[in-house]
Amino acid sequence: MIPDINLLPKVDQDDGSPKTIFILIGIITLLLLAVMSWLYFSARVDVVSLEAEEQSLQVERDALQVELTNLQGANQGSLEESVAFAELVSYDVSPLIDTTKALLPSNTYLRNYTFEQSIVSIDIDFETLNMISAYVERLEQNPYFLDVQVDSIANFDVNPTSEEEAEVDRFTEVPRYSATVVLQINDLYLATGGVN
C-alpha cells in the first residue's frame, strides 16, 4: 500500500462569510441608490408641474386683481351722486301710514309695516273676516294704492290658556284674525303729495 503523504503545507480554507457580507452590503447599497434616484426624479417631475400650476394661478390672480380694481373704480361715486340717488328712490311714508290707519275699522290692531321700493306690507289683527274684506275694499278705492292683495290670513286666540280651559271656553270666545296685506304704491300720486 501506498502511504498518503501530503507534503504541501496545510492551509485552512475560509468558509466565505466575509465575501457574503460584502455581497449583501453591495446589493443593499445598489437598492438604496435605485430608490433614492427614483425619489429624486419623481420629485423633480412634481416640482416642474407645481411651478407651472403656480404660474397659472399667479396669472389668474393678477387678472382677478385687475377686474376687482376696475369694479371698485366703477362703483365709487361721489357723495352728490349718492344723495341724488337716495332722493330719487326715497318717498314720504307719512301719508301712507296715515291713510292705512284712517281706513282701519274699529277694534283692529296694526302690528307692523314693511316698506320696499314700491310696495308696503302691513300686518293687522281683525275681529272678523268681514272686517278684512271691508278694509281691503277701502284700500282699493284709495288713490295712494294701485293694487291691494291679501297675502295671508291666520286665526289666533286672544288669551291662549291651558287645554282644559280652552275646551271650556272654546265656544265662548271667537278667535281673532291676523292678516298680511300687500299694497302697491301709486308713485305718481305720492310724489305729487296726494294731488292728481
What is the tally of helical segments?
6
Q: Which range does the strand content fall in?
A: 15-25%
Task: Please identify the structural class as seen in this structure.
Answer: alpha+beta
Main beta-sheet annotation: 4 strands, antiparallel
Any low-confidence stretches, pLDDT <50, length ≥5? none
Oligomer, anyone?
single chain
Describe this structure in words.
The structure is a single chain. The chain is built from six helices and four strands. A hairpin with a 3-residue loop joins strand 1 and strand 2 (119-126). The N and C termini lie far apart (155 Å). The model has no long low-confidence stretch (mean pLDDT 83). The protein is α+β, with helices and mostly antiparallel strands and 196 residues long.
